[in-house]
Structure formats: structure tokens, C-alpha cells
Amino acid sequence: MGIKSIKDLDLKSKRVLIRVDFNVPLDENGNITDDSRIKAAMPTIQYAIDQGGKVILMSHLGRPKGKVNKAQSLIPVARKLSELLGTSVNMAPDCIGGEVKEMVDSLKPGEVLLLENLRFHIGEEKDDPEFARELASLGDVYVDDAFATAHRAAASIVGICRYIKEKAAGFLMQGEVNYINKAIREPKHPFAAVIGGAKISGKLEILENLIAKVDKMVIGGGMAFTFVKALGQDIGKSLVEDDLIGKAREIMEKAKANGVKFYLPVDCVCAPDAKATKGIETTTIQEIPSDLMGLDIGPASVTLFGEALAGCNTIVWNGPMGVFEQKDFAKGTFEIAKKIASSKGLTIVGGGDTDAALHESNLSDKVSFVSTAGGAFLEMLGGIELPGVKALES
Ligand code: AMP
Q1: What is the pLDDT averaged over residues 189-218?
Q2: In this predicted model, what pLDDT tens digit does every residue of 351-382 receive, in sequence order?
């Protein structure tokens, strides 16, 4: 079913209610330490301003769980927004209620009002109909640009769509949905998925869905060791999910049945623990010493994975190849980032750690698309219909 774009709506002099994801990290003094989520929503906000809309922005920040917590106020975001937009952004004391309504009513075309943290109300996360109706009453049209929250059935995302006549996706939302759909619905083959990170448990659904779609599955990170153990090999002290060994075996059998080339690391960088700066050695995957753990893929795996990815026309990547936060165990992740960035195919990267690794190596603009989302990106890759996307369908 179709989803309208913000460009399909007439915004002139309308109250344009935009759900954004301003869930930014704050330090103890309330300073924003990474404003990329605010910047990511700027094209939509600027467009609404340029079209003469009266712009009302709403977001959550943190997990206040229905209680007002000053440390999770969006006031620092209003300040940052004013700076980025070059115009003063008004801050509402709440997200619903009489005073907020008055502030909305006095907005002039091109002006921007930021509502206070939606999660100060318990109704937001519960998708309470009354709360959703009150939010909806603040706008003439609704635009959802919060892809990173699209996997949550919240009032400002799902319930609100029942009470507002016109709804559409913002540019960020549209980009995310289009790119991820392109990869999972109509991929150009050969199609490879590179999946890493600590554990299989959070990623079972994507692994199971992707195994039916990809030509190649490349596994790195801590999760690789559950697969290696499932093959009957010793993995020393490496991270393992013993209860998922059966599942890992099943996934590999499915890969075989579907003709999917399944790649596991052939060597790894080992150490006594993830904080170690001494006792680090590189071994083959068959010879991990019993007192060490695998913390990064080794150089032979980088070469192998690189060869597997060369010539692929679609690559999706989620999850680091090792404990990339530590210099000694970061190389595998950065090397794979380079291989993916040099691909001529469609390359889609998502998940907080993976984005961070790409950013750190200045490669973000060398891939086709970097998702701003973690959970929503994974769920959509896993073939799960996102409530926030479904709600926008007309
Ligand atoms: P995830 O959130 O599941 O994508 O996992 C990301 C985390 O996995 C990062 O913080 C990495 O430090 C961690 N990680 C990656 N490889 C390993 C490994 N071999 N052993 C332990 N942790 C790992």
C-alpha cells in the first residue's frame, strides 16, 4: 500500500505536526553530545518551514516512563534547533493541554514550536487513544519522520493516525523505508548480508529472514563463536550462547538447503578478556587457546570476507566484527567497513555501532545509505512490518 510523502501535502498556513526522533545523548550537564539525529530531520523541518507551515515538532527523549524528569527535557534540543535553523524555536512546557494549544494557535506560518518530551505522559508508550487524540488535535496534517522509533506502537506514531485526516512520511522516513525495501524486496544479486555484533539472540529474526533472500551470509563478531561451536570446534573462552547452538545449526542447514554461501571467520584476534592490552595473539579459528577469547576477526578472515563481498550488487551490514571500541580489536571492523565502502553495488549499513564505525573511518558518504536506526532497521531487515510504517499507509 502507498505511503504519501510530505511533498504530497499542502502545508501552507497549516498546523504541520511532525513526529521526529530527537532522542539524543546528553552529558551530565545537559549538553547534546551527538546531534546527528537532529540534523537528520532538518530537511523535513526546513521544507515544512519553506512551504509556509506552522511547524510543531514532537519527540521522546530517554525513558522517563510517564513521569516528568527535568534531566530528560527537550529544552537543550530546542536550543540546538534554533542554532541549526537560524531562527528561534519556541519550547512548549508540555506536549498536550491548554497552554500548549494556545502556543500552537498563536504560531505564524514558518514558525517552529517544539513540544516537551512525549514520554513524560504514560499514554505515549501505551498508545493510549485519549492521549493520541489530544496530540492529533494540535495539527491539521501529520508527518512522521521518526524512522528510528517506527518499530514502537506509540501514541504519537500509531494512535495519532486514527485521529488526523492527512498523514505522510518525512524525507528521512521515506529514505529509510525506500532503501531498506529495495534491499529486501528487490535486491540485485549477488546479495550479501554481513552480520556481526555480540549475540545471535537479538538478531535471530533477521538471520532467519535473510537466509531465505541472500546469496551470501557473512558472520563476524561475538556471535560467530556460537556458529563455530555448533560445528563442533573449541572456541576457548569466546562469547557463546549455548542455548542457541541448535538454532545456529538450523540456520547453517537452511543456508545449505537454499544454496547460500555461509562464511564464518577463519582466524581471530584473541586475548584473555575484552579489556586486555597484553597477551593478545592471532590464531586460526581451530586453535583458539583454551584460556583466551576471540575478540576480533583476523587478517585471513578480512581477506576471505573481502573476496566474498567483491562483485556483490547488494550488501547490507549490521554489527561490528569485533570489540571495535578497543583499539586492539577494532581492525577487523574497520577493514570490513573499507571493503563495503569500496563496493560498487547498493550498500546499506545500519545499527548504532556499525554507523559509529563507519563514521569513525570517514566512510559514511562512501556507502549508498546509512540508516539512523538500530531496532527499526533490524526489524525491517528481518521482514517484520513496522507499526510506524503501517500506520502511514493509506
Ligand atoms: P550488537 O549490539 O549485538 O550489534 O553488539 C555490538 C557489540 O558487540 C559491541 O559493543 C562489540 O564490542 C561487541 N562484540 C563484537 N564482537 C565481539 C566479540 N568477539 N566478543 C565480545 N563482544 C563482541
Answers
A1: 93
A2: 878 888 888 888 989 999 999 888 899 888 88
For residues 55 and 18, is the Cβ–Cβ distance under 8 A? Answer: yes
Mutate to test the pocket of ligand 1, among 226, 316, 323, 355 (most ligand atoms within 8 A of CB): 323
pLDDT tens-digit map of 299-356: 999 999 999 999 999 999 999 999 999 999 999 999 999 999 999 999 999 987 888 8
Residues 161, 164, 165, 170, CA torsion sign: negative
Instruction: Give distance in angstroms: CA of 239 to centre of ligand 1.
Output: 9
Residue nearest to atom 10 of ligand 1 (CA): 323
* Neighbour tally for 215: CB within 10 Å: 18
Instruction: Provide the whole-model pTM.
Output: 0.87
The full set of domain ranges for the chain reads: 6-172, 179-381
Q: Which amino acid is at 78?
A: A
Query: Domain 179-381 adopts which CATH fold?
Result: Rossmann fold (3.40.50)
Q: Which residues contact 381 (CB under 8 A, 6 or more apart)?
A: 180, 183, 184, 206, 209, 210, 316, 318, 350
Q: Does domain 6-172 have CATH number 3.40.50.1260?
A: yes
